[in-house]
Amino acid sequence: FLIENVENEMDPLLDPVLDKAIIRKGKSMYINVSDQNMDYNDKFCMFMTSRLPNPHFSPELSAKCTVIDFTVTIKGLEQQLLGRVLNTEQRSLEESLAQLLEEVTNNVKSLQLLDKQLLDRLANSTGNLLDDTELIEVLANTKAKAKEVEQKLADSDEKKIEINEKREQYRPVATRGSVMYFCMTDMTMVSNPITAQPSGWMYNCSLNQFLHEFDVSVQRSEKVQPTSKRVDKIIDKLTYQVYRYMNRGIFERDKLMFKLMMTMRIMSMAGQL
Predict the structure, then answer these.
(1) pLDDT tens digit string along 242-263?
(2) Whole-number Å distance between alpha carbons of 112 and 207
C-alpha cells in the first residue's frame, strides 16, 4: 500500500495501522480503522513518500516507521558518477572489481561455514575429544581450508588496492560532475530581485537530465592519452556542456549569478577559495 506526498503530520486515522493495533478473534486478525474492523493480513506493508527535501517528522511517527532518506548527497553522487565514467572508459576495470567483490563475499561465506561446521561437530561430540579420530580429521581439514581461504582474501585485498588506484585516476571527473549538478539544483533557490518572490521553480531539473549531459560529455570529449590528459578533456567538456545546457534556460539577469556560483564552487572544491 502506497501513500504519496506525505507532509510533516500524518492523519490520525492511520494511527491504528502505524501502531499495529491488531485485534485477534480466533484465527482471524482485524484492525480498527475509523471505528470499523477491517481484515488484516500478515503480509500487509505500507509505504509513504514525501516530496519535502527536509521533512520534520514527530518523534512518535519516526519511532513507528523506518525513515529512509533518498536525498542525493555530493559524496554519494560522486561515487555514482565515478562508476558511470569508468563503465564507459574502463569497463573491464569495473567488471574486474565486481567479480573481485563477489569472490571476496563467497570466500567470507566459506570461512563462516567452516567455522559453523566445526562448532557443530564439537558441540555434538561425545567422550574424549582426542579419541575422536573423525573430529580430528575434520579439524585438520577445516584448518587447511581456512588457511587457503585467508590467503585468497589477502590476494583479493592486494588486487582491490591495485584496481582502486586505477579507478582513482578518474575521481576528478566524478568530483566535477557532482559540483556541477549541485550548481544546477541550487538555481531553484533564486528569487526575483524586484518582487523578492521565489522564481527558481522554473529552473527545476532532475538527476536523469544531468546524467544525460554527463554521458554526452564523456562520449564527445576528445580521446587522448595518457589518462591524466583524457581526464582533463572530459572535465573541460563536462563543465562547458552543463554551463551551456543551463545557460539556455535561465533569465538573462540570472546568468551572471550562475557563472559566479559555478566558479566559486569549483574553486572551493579545489581548495583555492
Answers:
(1) 999 988 888 888 888 889 999 9
(2) 40
Residue 140 burial by CB count (10 A; 0-12/13-18/19+): exposed, middle or buried?
Answer: exposed
More confident residue, 58 or 182: 182
Name the grid cell of 16: 491504528
Q: Residue 200: what pLDDT?
A: 67
- 158-167: list long-range contacts, CB under 8 Å, 24+ apart: 159/96, 159/100, 160/97, 160/100, 160/104, 163/93, 163/96, 163/97, 163/100, 166/90, 166/93, 167/82, 167/86, 167/90, 167/93, 167/97
pLDDT score at 211: 92
| Cβ(21)–Cβ(38) below 8 Å | no
Cell of 89: 572508459
Residue 173: burial class (beta carbons within 10 Å; 0-12, 13-18, 19+): buried
Kindly compute the dihedral angle of the four CA atoms of residues 130, 132, 136, 139, in this order, to the nearest 10 degrees.
-110
Beta pairing class for 2-3 and 47-48: parallel
Stated as kind and residue range, the H or E segment containing 223 is none
What residue spans of 21-132 are helical by DSSP H? 59-64, 74-89, 91-124
Q: Which three three-digit cell numbers place residue 129?
A: 575429544
Picking from 50, 49, 48, 26, the residue whose alpha carbon sits closest to that of residue 39 is 26
The count of other CB atoms within 10 Å of the CB of residue 88 is 14
Geometric angle at alpha carbon 210, from 258 and 192, rounded to 5°: 35
